[in-house]
Amino acid sequence: MIHISKANTRRKVSRGPFTSRFLPLGRLLPDWDDHGLAQIGRLEHATLEAGALVPMHMHQNEEILSYLRKGTMHHKDSDENDLGIHNKYFMVFRSEVLFYDVRLEKDSALPTPNLKGKTGLLYVFDGSLTIKSTGKTIEEGDSIVIKDEKLDLKSNEDSDLVFFVLDEQASFS
Fold first, then answer.
1. 7, 82, 102, 156: which one has the fewest Cβ atoms less than 10 Å from its Cβ?
2. Contact criterion met (CB below 8 Å) for 90 and 152
C-alpha cells in the first residue's frame, strides 16, 4: 500500500514568529480510526524565527521528536535543563523508531529502506521526487505512508527528506 498525502491537506497555524503545519497521519488514511500512525501521533513541520520564544507548555503523555534542519533551538524544561537542539543533536521520543535523514541531489535515485513488515513514512522537507514505478510526483510538504512496498525514488531537484520506520505492533503512548 502506498498512500500519498499532499501538503495542501495540512492545517497551518501561525502565531507571530512561530508557524506550524500539522499532518494528522492516520486521519488521511482510508478506514483508519486514529489520528496517529503507530508511534507518531502527528507530524508537525514548524518554523520559528530567530530570537522567538515559545512559552513553557506541557506535553503530558506525548513522545516528541524535536529535530532541526537549520539553526539551533534551546529547549528548557521544568527542571531548568537547557538543551541546544540542532541538526547534529535532537531530542527523541521513547518509542523505538528508525529515523533516516537524507539530502538527495538532483537526478539522484534512492530506494526506500526494507521495511520487513513495518510501516514507512516519508516526508519531503523541500524539493521534489518521482516514484519511479508510478510516475507520481511528491513535492515539498508531501508525505507518503508505505506498507508492504519498496519504492525507488528519483529527485527532480535537490531534495531534503526524512524517513521513519514504524512498528504498528510496538507499544507507545
1. 82
2. no
DSSP collapsed to 3 states, 63-124? CCCECCCCCCEEEECCCCCEEEEECCECECCCCCCEEEEEEECCCCEEECCCCCCCEEEEEE
Strand order through the sheet with 159-166? 2-5, 143-147, 119-126, 159-166, 98-104
Q: What is the tens place of the pLDDT at every residue in 5-44?
A: 787 777 777 777 777 777 767 666 777 777 778 877 777 7
- Hey, how many other C-beta atoms are within 10 angstroms of the C-beta on 127? 19
Q: List, for residues 140-158, the tens digit of each pLDDT value.
A: 989 899 988 999 999 999 9
Supply the pTM of this predicted model. Answer: 0.81
Residue 68 contacts residue 87 (beta carbons within 8 Å): yes
CB 104, CB 161: distance < 8 Å: yes
Q: Any idea which residue has 500500500 for its cell? A: 1
pLDDT at 86: 73
